[in-house]
């Protein structure tokens, strides 16, 4: 493919946020080029892939305008339907609540989203890396050769180490940036509940985070951990913690003792919210590039896609001379900014508690299953906040 010399909108990154941005820019009349550095869209996968039902997302983010592709997608993108979520504290006293959602085949889902963008008129170039962004000039290199392209708007949806964000002064300062390291295995031959997500806590297995078992079908699962390297034991790697969890955890190990590892997935998750600005006069950032992650659970697909929709619509309006690009920053914060900020506050409070299994057990004892459910989605009920703050100060 030989791209044109200029476009209204160039989107960097064809994950859920970038493809959604490209779709909504094209639907609103803009000429769009969608770039992705991967040889195959969606491969390698970069997250466990749980997507709550759209009705649950809407109930918890009532101001958000959900993209249609978050509500409706082919059954071929679904690995497993989920009915229950379980929280397992260090003492093993399980709490659970009902949740509706699906574990996705991220490769197929990401490809579906990119196909929708292309069907709306966006051009797509895979195996194309952006090497430089200067103003609205984008330099690329890849299987289709080297190009210098122009745009009215550049949308950076290129992940937590976004080149676009760094080039435009939108990246969070290093001293303010908090990340979690995620390592996960896709496994077969495991004895799990196929309808339930399970999240495990405990400093000996997952310091500063949690381990998970997400079913991907009969006797198949995604098993992983998200840990904070600064809270880990010296000399103990994420791989060491994951193997310890699979081998030694009293509740998880029996389910995983015959696991066959089929795929290894690793990534970085930004968990400190969004930077102060996510827009300039010619550039927007969205998804992981903008810290659009629910910090309490690392969930990023819904906020990334909501932000992508807003970014695409705003970019198209700007290209048509109907608004300033900076309107994007206000628009996404109105729709889900409060939930994002609250999730960061909850994560910060939990940081101190997670250093002690005794404190974690106490915290999980007084938080009800219903409260746990809303905390997973960026809410922090007042009584829970007060109780966690008391625990973090060492009070009973």
From TrEMBL:
Q: Name one GO biological process term.
A: phospholipid biosynthetic process
Recorded protein name is: Geranylgeranyl reductase family protein
User: Does the UniProt entry include the keyword Oxidoreductase?
Assistant: yes
Q: Where is the Digeranylgeranylglycerophospholipid reductase catalytic domain?
A: 180-268
Would the keyword Oxidoreductase turn up in this protein's UniProt record? Answer: yes
Q: Known InterPro entries for this protein?
A: FAD/NAD-bd_sf, Geranylgeranyl_Rdtase_fam, Geranylgeranyl_reductase, GGR_cat
Short name of one Pfam family: FAD_oxidored
Keywords assigned by UniProt?
A: FAD, Flavoprotein, Lipid biosynthesis, Lipid metabolism, Oxidoreductase, Phospholipid biosynthesis, Phospholipid metabolism
Q: What GO molecular function annotation could you give as one example from this UniProt entry?
A: oxidoreductase activity, acting on the CH-CH group of donors, NAD or NADP as acceptor
Instruction: Tell me where on the tree of life, at the top rank, the source sits.
Output: Archaea
């Amino acid at each position: 493919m030989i791209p044109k010399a200029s476009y209204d909108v160039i989107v960097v990154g064809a994950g859920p946020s970038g493809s959604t941005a490209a779709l909504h820019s094209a639907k609103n009349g803009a000429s769009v080029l969608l770039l992705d550095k991967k040889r195959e869209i969606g491969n390698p996968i970069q997250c466990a892939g749980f997507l709550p039902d759209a009705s649950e997302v809407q109930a918890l983010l009532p101001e958000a305008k959900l993209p249609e592709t978050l509500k409706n997608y082919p059954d071929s993108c679904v690995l497993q339907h989920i009915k229950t979520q379980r929280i397992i504290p260090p003492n093993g006293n399980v709490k659970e609540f009902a949740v509706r959602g699906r574990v996705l085949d991220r490769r197929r889902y990401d490809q579906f989203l990119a196909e929708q963008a292309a069907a709306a008129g966006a051009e797509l170039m895979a195996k194309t890396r952006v090497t430089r962004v200067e103003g609205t000039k984008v330099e690329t290199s890849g299987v289709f050769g080297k190009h210098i392209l122009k745009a009215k708007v550049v949308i950076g949806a290129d992940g937590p180490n976004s080149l676009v964000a760094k080039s435009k002064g939108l990246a969070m300062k290093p001293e303010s940036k908090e990340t979690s390291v995620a390592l996960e295995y896709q496994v077969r031959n495991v004895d799990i509940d196929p309808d339930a997500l399970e999240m495990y806590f405990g400093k000996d297995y997952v310091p500063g985070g949690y381990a998970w078992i997400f079913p991907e079908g009969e006797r198949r699962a995604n098993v992983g951990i998200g840990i904070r390297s600064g809270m880990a034991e010296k000399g103990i790697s994420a791989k060491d913690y994951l193997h310890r969890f699979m081998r030694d955890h009293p509740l998880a190990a029996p389910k995983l003792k015959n696991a066959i590892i089929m795929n290894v997935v690793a990534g970085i998750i930004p968990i400190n919210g969004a930077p102060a600005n996510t827009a300039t006069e010619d550039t927007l950032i969205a998804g992981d590039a903008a810290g659009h992650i629910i910090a309490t659970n690392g969930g990023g697909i819904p906020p990334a896609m909501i932000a992508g929709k807003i970014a695409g619509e705003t970019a198209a309006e700007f290209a048509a001379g109907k608004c300033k690009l900076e309107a994007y920053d206000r628009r996404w914060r109105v729709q889900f900014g409060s939930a994002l900020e609250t999730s960061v506050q909850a994560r910060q409070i939990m940081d101190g508690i997670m250093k002690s299994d005794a404190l974690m057990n106490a915290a999980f004892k007084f938080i009800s299953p219903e409260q746990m459910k809303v905390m997973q989605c960026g809410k922090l009920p007042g009584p829970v906040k007060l109780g966690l703050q008391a625990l973090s100060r060492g009070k009973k």
